[in-house]
Design goal:
Helix content: 55-70%
Largest sheet: none
Number of helices: 6
Radius of gyration: 18 Å
Shape: globular
Structural class: mainly alpha
Order of helices and strands: HHHHHH
Number of strands: 0
Distance between the termini: 54 Å
Number of domains: 1
Strand content: under 5%
Length: 161
């Protein structure tokens, strides 16, 4: 018969695993959302991000956070209401991705808020910036590359070697 302590440790590990897998899945979902929805039928909203108007603090594109904030909040709420079940940890995984997305994309790459890591010389950060700038050099709806955020293609790392 398993010890109560062992069961608690196993539950913690499972919950951390759910958070981690959800985080990774959210990067894949964000890639698909960006490529097929934002550069597809919702281009009229996303275009505000590609064609910069520096006079506005917010962009129409900022509304896309709702695609992740609403499911995250619902999962957290229902996960708590259902006795701290797996939905809570799915919601936390999506939330962590959203926070990291905001910090990396809006603060680090686009420097929209107080700049951080502006002079970072780490190879990953340089490759990340290069990939994102390659994405932004395409202004049209159908053109583009590098639709993900955190997963950077090998070719951008090779350019930073």
């Amino acid at each position: 018969m398993p010890h109560i302590k062992d069961t608690k440790i196993m539950n913690y590990l499972i919950n951390i695993g759910i958070i981690f897998l959800t985080f990774c899945a959210t990067e894949l979902i964000a890639w698909a959302l960006h490529k097929y929805i934002m550069h597809g039928f919702l281009w009229s909203i996303h275009a505000s991000h590609h064609v910069k108007d520096e006079s506005h603090f917010f962009e129409w594109n900022d509304l896309f956070f709702l695609f992740f904030a609403i499911p995250s909040a619902l999962c957290i709420y229902t996960g708590i209401a259902d006795g701290l079940d797996f939905k809570l940890y799915i919601g936390i995984g999506i939330l962590i991705y959203g926070i990291i997305y905001f910090v990396v994309h809006d603060v680090f790459i686009h420097q929209r808020y107080p700049p951080i890591l502006r002079k970072s010389n780490h190879r990953y950060f340089r490759a990340l910036r290069r990939a994102h700038h390659a994405h932004h050099k395409h202004i049209g709806k159908q053109d583009g590359e590098a639709f993900g955020l955190l997963w950077v293609s090998k070719k951008y790392f090779e350019k930073e070697a």
